[in-house]
Write a structure and sequence with these properties.
alpha/beta; two-stranded antiparallel ribbon; 11 helices
Length: about 260
């Protein structure tokens, strides 16, 4: 059993508990449920940097990354840096995140916010909308083609953008449908945790031009981005580089300034 299988088993228990505490109807009465969302995919199309900067305290592969920062400071810093969007981890057990992080980020910036989560139930999509997200992540490795269709259609009905993450050609082929906005290629092998940009390069030709291409994992340098841009990538998810520093906003500012020189 790999880490993804373990996470999904725990996630099912967590969702059952959350549903019993806060039913669908209650989520739909949230103040944020009626707000107009911001399209990350449109912002990426028009961006020179394409940076999606993450708030992440820890991860299964790296354990602690940074436990000392306030989400609100990180959100403001990223917005001032000129990133395209902010990814907020909301998984508690494995990544140290929470839905409160999403709420705090929403209250402190006007960036498109991605709820970075292991979505396996429609409840989590309604929850994302209720807590101020603009974008949801769907991971092809843990979903059937039917689930991807159902979940992405629900997201679109709630005016949420959909970023679909794949690791290989098989996952990509089952995921291509009109309700997806962005196709993200994760360069990390989930079984070994090894990272290689070759994954993004190899899959780029199989991604139709209708989708915004996003590369995820292992992007920590200007060189990596410059290497991937010729393959049509417009979005670059940076998960750890900025968060490893004392001031992620400043790190993102310096990174984007150098990238745009």
């Amino acid at each position: 059993m790999n880490i993804l299988d373990k996470i999904v088993i725990d996630k099912r228990k967590e969702i059952a508990l959350r549903k019993s505490l806060i039913p669908f109807k209650q989520l739909e009465t949230s103040v944020l449920f009626e707000r107009s969302t911001i399209s990350l995919s449109e912002d990426l199309k028009n961006s020179t940097s394409g940076i999606i900067a993450e708030h992440k305290r820890r991860s299964p592969s790296k354990s602690t990354i940074n436990q000392n920062l306030n989400v609100q400071d990180v959100a403001k810093g990223y917005e001032n840096a000129g990133v395209c969007g902010m990814s907020v981890l909301t998984d508690g057990k494995y990544f140290g995140g929470s839905l409160d992080d999403l709420l705090l980020a929403r209250a402190n910036c006007n960036l498109p916010l991605l709820r970075k989560e292991f979505i396996i139930d429609t409840y989590q999509i309604v929850e994302a909308k209720a807590y101020g997200a603009d974008v949801i992540l769907l991971i092809a490795a843990i979903l059937t083609k039917e689930e991807i269709k159902q979940f992405s259609e629900l997201a679109k009905s709630l005016k949420l953008d959909v970023l679909l993450e794949v690791h290989n050609l098989e996952e990509l082929q089952k995921s291509i449908m009109p309700t997806i906005d962005m196709l993200g290629v994760n360069n990390r092998n989930l079984k070994t945790f090894e990272v290689s940009l070759e994954t993004s390069k190899a899959l780029s030709n199989n991604i139709p031009d209708d989708f915004v291409k996003v590369s995820e994992s292992g992007i920590s340098s200007i060189e990596a981005i410059k290497e991937l841009q010729p393959y049509g990538y417009k979005g670059f998810l940076i998960g750890e580089s900025f968060m490893k520093t004392d001031n992620p906003g400043l790190s993102a500012t310096e990174f984007i300034n150098t990238l745009n020189q």
